Amino acid sequence: MSAPRSFLLLAVILLLSATSCRKDPEMTTPDPVEDELYFPPNNGSGWETLSPESLGWDTSKIPDLLQFLEDGKSRAFLVLKNGRIVIEAYFGKNLLGTADFNSQANWYWASAGKTLTAFTVGLAQEDGYPDIQNSSATYLGTGWADITAEQAEAITVRHHLTMTTGLDDGVNNSDCTDKECLVYLAEPGTRWAYHNAAYTILDRVIEGAAKQDFDDYFHSRLTQKIGMDGFWTYLDYNHVYFSTARSMARFGLLNLNKGKWKEEAIMSDLQYFNNMTHPSQDINESYGYLWWLNGQGSYMLPGIQLELPGSIIPAAPSDL
Questions:
Q1: Which positions ≥6 away from 181 have C-beta within 8 Å?
Q2: What is the pLDDT of residues 240-273, one digit of tens each?
Q3: What sign for the dihedral angle of Cα 47, 112, 158, 279?
Q4: Dihedral of the CA atoms 171, 174, 176, 179 (nearest 10)?
């Protein structure tokens, strides 16, 4: 699911070192900060904080930052330092427009939800359900797409994760997961295209492999283990996740710590994790397993078959 700029409303920045808001070292002396990652309790609203002043940040710039976010119609903005909240701000109204947006209000993740699905596929493979090297037809059955049996057999679960199924993203509705919308265009693995329908079908892959509802599996294996709240729902063909901004921050912390929450390895398969967060193919270097990657030599964008040079966000950290 894509969304216009004005509706990309959840912004969570996880900082190991923050330099953009820092004063000259001669102007302030930051307090010592623990390097070890902090994880908030799974229950309740408790979450340790740090002040920008204690980190030596130039706090005179913060009002301009918050005004910029509000002007851009953001709903939530969090900055964490080693897991502790340094800045937390909310803007505008809730989904129904009935109250101010706050830390308990939900908003949709839009395409950021793809990272949740990629992580869940890894958990399911770790549990012995789908093998991403297998044909997705193994778990979807026959007739899931308007292609031949041989063409379907050639599409693996990994092709869905890497946006290289070869299915035609130029159909009238590229979100449509009905059989007649899923047609052959290219040999799997030879063409990268940002195709929502091919991604959304991964939910059915997990259900077919694990023999349980995707939402139930997701909750038992991920959200309840790290204290996330939220829910999945269908908006037309898109399976979209809604949660609080703090829940998004929890998932960010989990990935910052390579799948480990406190002392528990939520994802033990570090090979899968590394593959997920590194270039997954040589067509679009800036794409892993449903993750956008910065700091690569080239990138492609949704809707165009053109390789562009450089990082996708040149001004951002290369390991974003």
A1: 146, 171, 172, 173, 197
A2: 999 999 999 999 999 999 999 999 999 999 999 9
A3: negative
A4: 50
CATH annotation of 112-239+267-282: 3.40.710.10
Residues in the chain, total = 320
The reply to whether the predicted model has a pTM over 0.85 is: yes
Q: CB under 8 Å to 317, separation ≥6 — which residues?
A: 294, 295
Every domain range in the chain assigned CATH 3.40.710.10: 112-239+267-282
Q: Is 241 helix (H, G, I), strand (E, B) or coil?
A: strand
Closest CA to 85 of 141, 139, 38: 38
What is the rounded average pLDDT of the residues 186-196?
98
Q: What angle do CA 6, 308, 305 make, to 5 degrees?
A: 80
211-247 tens-digit pLDDT: 999 999 999 999 999 999 999 999 999 999 999 999 9
